[in-house]
Each structure stands twice: as C-alpha cells, then as structure tokens.
Here is the input.
Amino acid sequence: MQPGGTPVHTMPEPLTILCIASYHKGQTFLREAKRQGARVFLVTSESLRDADWPRESIDEIFFVRDDDKRWKLDDLLLGASHLARRTVIDRVVPLDDFDLEKASALREHLRIGGMGETTTRYFRDKLAMRLRAVDAKLPVPRFVHVLNEGAIRRFCAEVPAPWVLKPRLEAGTIGIRKVRNQDELWPIVDALGDRAAFHLLEEFIAGDVFHVDSLVDHSRVLAAVASGYGRPPFDVSHGGGVFTTQLLPRGSADERDVLATNRAVLSAMGLVRGVSHTEFIKRADGAWFFLETSARVGGAHIVELIEAATGANYWAEWAKIELAGGKTPYVPPVLREDYAGLVTCLAKDERPDLSAFSDPEVVWRLDKKHHAGVIVASPSHPRVAALVTSYAQRFAEQFSVFIPPGESPRD
Here is the structure.
C-alpha cells in the first residue's frame, strides 16, 4: 500500500517456459509462446547450434553436449538448476518424443507441475502403454515382454507367427522388425543380450492403420482429427514407396469408432493437458486395436495436413494449452471442416520438380532435399481421395527411391 491506503498495482511477471528439443523442430511452438507473452528458453543439442531456430522468439538458448547423439541427464539437471537460481521456471515442454523423459525428470527435480515420470512412461514406453491398456480393458495386440524365456516360449506357442519385435522406447517405426518364426526370433534375442528387455514381442495384425490427433485440456479431448494412412507406416519405412494419409469422412462409422476409442485411450493413459498423436489398426473383420500413443504433435508433416483441413496449427495450439496450464481458460479453435491429404516419399533427385502437380487443391509443397511431398485440400472428401490416389501413383513412378531404415535421417 502507498501512503494514504492507495493500492500499488504491479504487472504480473510473464510466464517462463523452458523448451527441450534434441531435434530441430517446434519452431511454430516457440513463436506462439513468445506471441502469447511468455519468456521462452530453449535447451537443445550442441550440434544444432547453427540450426534455423526462430531466435527472435527465444530469450536465451542453452546447448547440451550430445556425444553419440545422447544427452547426459546430469548436464541437463545441473544446467536447468543453475538457470532456476535467477529465473522462476513455470513450464517445461519437450518438443520431440525423445525429450519426454528428459522433461519429466526435470519437472520432478525442480518440482514443477506437469507430466511426471510415471505418466510419461505411458506415452513413451510401448510395454507400459500396453499394460495400462489391458488394465483399462482396451483392445491391444497380444504381446509379451522380451525378458523371461519361458513366457516368450509360451507366447510363441499360443500366438501364431509372424510377430513384431518392437523397441519399447523408440518413436514411430524406428527399430521395429517383423519376425517370421522362432528360428528367426531366438538369434535376434541372443544378439540383443541385456538389451532384449528393452523390447516387446507382439502379435502381427494385418489391417488398415489410422491416427487421431488431439488437443486436450483438463483431461478432456477438446478437438480431435481422425485420419487414415494409405499403406501402414511400417510397410513404407521398411519396404519403401509412397507415404499417404488423409482425413476420414466426417460422420462415417470409422471416424466415430476411432474417435471414441481415442478418448478412452487418452483417459486411461492420464493425459491432463497437451497434444497427442495416437494410432490404431482395424482388422479385416472390423475389430479395432490400440497400437500406440504419444504426448506430442504428429510427425511426418501431419501438423501441416491438419492445418490445411481445419485451419488449426497444433504446434501453436499446444503452446496456448501449456501457457494456460489449467489455471486460465484454454478455448480451442473452431475447426474448419474441409478435407486434406498428404503424399510424400524419399526422392532419387536432390530437388524433385513438383511443378506438374498444379491442381488448385495443392496447398503445400515439401521443401527438403531428396524428398517429394504435397498436401491437397478441398471441401470434398472424394476429390481429396482421388487426388491422393493419383498423386501417389505418379510419385511412385517419378520420384520414389528406397533407403533402408537407419541410413536416412529422422524427420
């Protein structure tokens, strides 16, 4: 109070958000957080010091040594603790799948609100996801932890081959292998040695693969977009060819089913606020199975796909949700109800010529060496579907080249 009882009005301090990015991504998130008035700090890899970060939207950047492309957690904890001596950190946000554990460990260490280490497991560890789904009575492929030999043998006797061997802590299709029989399986397990326990073995289910991309606040799915892949991502990453995905017809049985299952999954996993990319498979007999979920935006240009159809950029909406933090209202955008489809592939030419793909529905072109990609958008689902089919065939004929997994950089 000033003399005479007059209140002293002080401006509230801006929220400080500490973003973690071991890969070069999340630029739109950083820009939106700054536009919303936050102080924005970025922790990234030393090898990305010269990357094209939106430096005008970042108050300060800190670099962590990334020997063998891995960070030492102690370096992050000690560095963030040093920063916290002079700056109150309000939010910690991981911008990539591989940063979730780092962010949760940092929140636990600094006692900052947000997803802790236990819940993070449900969005990173494929074994934890499945066990949680089983507890919630959600349908998942049959599986076994690659740990106890007796349990593995019983699984192989009960579940017909082929099977899928999956790393528990990788993202997308990285490191996944199809195994045809036990003669193939056991040499792989033996070669993995003590690392075998970081894998699970899963029933192979043939079917169509779908994804739902969600905005969540106060444990409620406030917006969700359902899409279907052309060929399953595993087939494309391990066999080459053209990757496609497109929004499902609104009001269709597939859309209703997958949106309902998505809500059940995110509730079971305990996502309180943020974004999620979740995948499902529909078997030929119509049965649905949960495959995996994440607490991040979809990769492989799915953010651009959704924005083309709805007008909403999930990176920007994620920033708004994080800054609201459950304390101020987050109002999701009104989504435009157009349709969009994505067509992309690895290309044999460094800069493939996309000029012949000139239909008025083309709203985005991929600018990346040795990649070809377009997004088409229209109010008409049949028109989008026809363009995706036509363009995928033309991409396969003109551009597509196959590079075995592990020989090309991650997106």
